[in-house]
Amino acid sequence: MKNVVPYDRIARNLSTWPFGAIDSFFDAPYSALSSVSSDAFVMNVEDAGQSYVVTAELPGVSKEDIDVELNEGRLSITATRKESEEEKTKNYLHKESSEWQATRGVYLKDAAREGLSAKLDGGILTVTVPKQDQQASVTKIAID
User: Fold this and answer.
1) Where residue 95 falls among pLDDT bands split at 50, 70, 90?
2) Cβ neighbours of residue 57 under 8 Å, at least 6 residues apart?
3) What angle do CA 12, 13, 18 make, to 5 degrees?
4) What mean pLDDT value characterizes the chain?
5) What is the Rg, in whole angstroms, of the alpha carbon atoms belonging to the chain?
6) pLDDT of 1-14, one tens digit each?
7) In the chain, how many domains are there?
8) In whole angstroms, what is the distance from residue 8 CA to residue 10 CA?
9) SHSP domain spans which residues (predicted)?
10) Residue 54: CB partners within 8 Å, gap ≥ 6?
11) Domain presence at residue 50
12) pTM (2 decimals)?
């Protein structure tokens, strides 16, 4: 029974044979240019006027396994998904879910440190980051 391979995996491998390996070889250098890797989660950033609204799709992740941090204007969201002990005791022939951790971040130049809020609802994390008044970061120096 351990030699059972799902039909769809065989069909996928046959559909790309014999050129699938060649295509993946030539695509490898360009995979780093992709904005979202295969093990990352989808994240959107919206400028809502007086604040930024950041949404991240995290289905199946509990709020205890999510870390949201704002450090000097960089908002980082880290999600970790682990198998429960109950799932480890089952005898799976094929399982496509696994333990993973992913971090995504975005730089918000005028993010305020106060008034931040985060809410997880239906697998969608929504983080609201208020904007602060833009202070001049350039200082003029008089020449003597």
Assistant:
1) confident
2) 41, 42, 43, 123, 124, 125
3) 130
4) 78
5) 22
6) 455 555 555 566 65
7) 1
8) 5
9) 31-144
10) 43, 44, 45, 46, 75, 77, 106, 126, 127, 128, 129
11) yes
12) 0.63
